[in-house]
Amino acid sequence: xxxxxxxxxxxxxxxxxxxxxxxxxxxxxxxxxxxxxxxxxxxxxxxxxxxxxxxxxxxxxxxxxxxxxxxxxxxxxxxxxxxxxxxxxxxxxxxxxxxxxxxxxxxxxxxxxxxxxxxxxxxxxxxxxxxxxxxxxxxxxxxxxxxxxxxxxxxxxxxxxxxxxxxxxxxxxxxxxxxxxxxxxxxxxxxxxxxxxxxxxxxxxxxxxxxxxxxxxxxxxxxxxxxxxxxxxxxxxxxxxxxxxxxxxxxxxxxxxxxxxxxxxxxxxxxxxxxxxxx
Length: 279
Known about the structure:
Layout: H1 27-52, E1 59-66, H2 72-78, E2 88-92, H3 98-101, H4 107-110, E3 119-123, H5 128-135, H6 141-160, E4 163-171, H7 174-186, H8 197-202, H9 205-218, E5 226-230, H10 234-252, H11 263-271
Parallel strand pairs: 1-3, 1-4, 2-3, 4-5
Helix pairs in contact: 1-10, 5-6, 5-9
């Protein structure tokens, strides 16, 4: 229900940011349902990692995009917190460094991809190069237009190499963003999260919405679909993304590898009296 149809025009104004499609009845039920998914997610993550030790190259990449305060960091904290951190590779993409700018725009993305058996999480991603780059006119229009095709080709190559890509656009409303920014200003403990530049970015809200609509339309494909996550309600956002991860990992159905040694012999060696201390 949250998947953006491939090739169709996208009008973000037609999606309610406070909707709860197919979700639990309320916040209490949503929080409980998310917690209950934890054990199953942990099991599937362990199986994915275990399978990689026997040559299974499959891995998962969760891409989180959205306006400021939409909950990218909150998703990492509350949803990815359900996993074993040793099996996760988390990368938050900021403004490109001089070194990154000296390479093609996808270069820095390839440096942060998950390896076999891992779950990768991108807080922002290569889509910044068709979002802020479009809004701020950082590249010529001809270059910008070609980037969508390059992104689709790149994601196809990842899928062909065993990467399950889950792209989530956290859809927050203009008014809800204002409330969350005010909450940061009203709480001294949250001042570190506030950037005065966020106010200037709000003035560009229509341009960003258009940029997202274009990206969602041009880059929602069969191998790497976009999912639109209503993000005004944090509990629903967490439930929906947890559910997507559970569905995709369940579809992968990774299996523990069979032993490549004689289990019976190893057990006999451990239980044999001659291997006891002092004998």
